[in-house]
């Protein structure tokens, strides 16, 4: 893993690249680029380890407002890809249940590292988003995709089930459509993915993709930092508890905003009331 002001490289060995920038609305935004240009940005164990390390590094940034996760440029002649899946050659070399558990746990730990980031993570999807790539996208908070993107869970076609963060899919698209993806191993186009709720926004081109991501980053950066981090934690609670427990968690979250007397909410409310009077 290395930190660089540029990303989306279409040359070189598999890598995870982290870039940082301050945005006009305030705060730090980071971009994590998964780059494996010769192989549709598939993730191997070394790449997954670098992704986990990148998230750990960003988690301690005090001014982090948002993270963008993207696939790098693919090699000439290759189709564009967000993440085209896990490394099938590595999986083919597994020779015991223990080795298999270690391998698949890496994918889970990478997804968990994204979910554990304190700031929202936006998946910037352009091209193939398959298998482990779709699980990683599902672990992000928001997803924006180009119309040429393709989504699928092909694991049963190579003799294994879809596992780990595939468990997030029913919460996004429902159990019936999840079964359709993981049983039939069919790919769906981006328009279908948006209609199902697998992605939150669809754009025509890479240029529009960058514009859409920047728009969302700006909106996030204008919010209260503590409020946004609290909101991310709370939405993850909502995924796993009954409604009444989710409501109770919300009451606690609201009250905790005033542990310091409500400095952040009061500053934002004063600004809102000032604009309303002008």
Automatic annotation (TrEMBL):
<dbReference type="InterPro" id="IPR001753">
    <property type="entry name" value="Enoyl-CoA_hydra/iso"/>
</dbReference>
<dbReference type="InterPro" id="IPR029045">
    <property type="entry name" value="ClpP/crotonase-like_dom_sf"/>
</dbReference>
<dbReference type="GO" id="GO:0005739">
    <property type="term" value="C:mitochondrion"/>
</dbReference>
<dbReference type="GO" id="GO:0006635">
    <property type="term" value="P:fatty acid beta-oxidation"/>
</dbReference>
<keyword id="KW-0843">Virulence</keyword>
<dbReference type="Pfam" id="PF00378">
    <property type="entry name" value="ECH_1"/>
</dbReference>
<comment type="similarity">
    <text>Belongs to the enoyl-CoA hydratase/isomerase family.</text>
</comment>
<protein>
    <recommendedName>
        <fullName>Enoyl-CoA hydratase</fullName>
    </recommendedName>
</protein>
């Amino acid at each position: 893993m290395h930190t660089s002001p540029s990303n989306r490289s279409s040359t070189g060995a598999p890598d995870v690249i982290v870039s940082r920038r301050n945005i006009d609305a305030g705060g730090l935004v980071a971009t994590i680029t998964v780059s494996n240009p010769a192989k549709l940005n598939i993730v191997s164990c070394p790449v997954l380890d670098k992704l986990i390390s990148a998230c750990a590094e960003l988690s301690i940034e005090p001014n982090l407002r948002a993270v963008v996760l993207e696939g790098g440029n693919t090699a000439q002649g290759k189709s564009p890809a967000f993440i085209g899946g896990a490394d099938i050659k590595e999986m083919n070399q597994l020779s015991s249940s223990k080795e298999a558990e270690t391998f698949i746990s890496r994918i889970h730990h990478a997804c968990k590292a994204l979910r554990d980031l304190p700031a929202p993570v936006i998946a910037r999807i352009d091209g193939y988003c398959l298998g482990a790539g779709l699980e990683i996208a599902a672990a992000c908070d928001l997803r924006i995709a180009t119309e040429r993107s393709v989504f699928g869970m092909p694991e049963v076609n190579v003799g294994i089930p879809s596992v780990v963060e595939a468990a997030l899919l029913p919460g996004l698209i429902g159990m019936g459509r999840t079964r359709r993806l993981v049983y039939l191993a069919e790919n769906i186009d981006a328009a279908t993915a948006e209609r199902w709720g697998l992605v939150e926004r669809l754009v025509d081109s890479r240029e529009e993709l960058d514009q859409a991501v920047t728009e969302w980053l700006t909106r996030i950066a204008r919010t209260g930092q503590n409020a946004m981090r609290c909101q991310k934690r709370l939405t993850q609670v909502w995924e796993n508890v009954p409604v009444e427990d989710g409501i109770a968690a919300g009451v606690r979250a609201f009250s905790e905003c005033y542990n310091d007397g409500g400095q952040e909410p009061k500053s934002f409310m004063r600004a809102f009331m000032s604009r309303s009077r002008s």
